[in-house]
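Note to self: keep these together.
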Amino acid sequence: MIGRYDFDRLGLRTRIPATVFYSEEDTPLREMEQWEKYFVGKIEFIRFDGNHFFIQQHYREMAEIISERLIEI
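Structure:
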């Protein structure tokens, strides 16, 4: 359902910085970059190897990155 919702019509953008984890095999960067239209501030894309479930192989790395970003806030 959320995949079909037209968020663009809301015109919402946030100043909150974002870190986006993705897998090129699951969703290519060019598609992930669509998130940029919802952020005014910094947005960082971090690529991981793997398929849709890449989080299962990279959860430790991702947790470390999340921890680092929270300290920055």
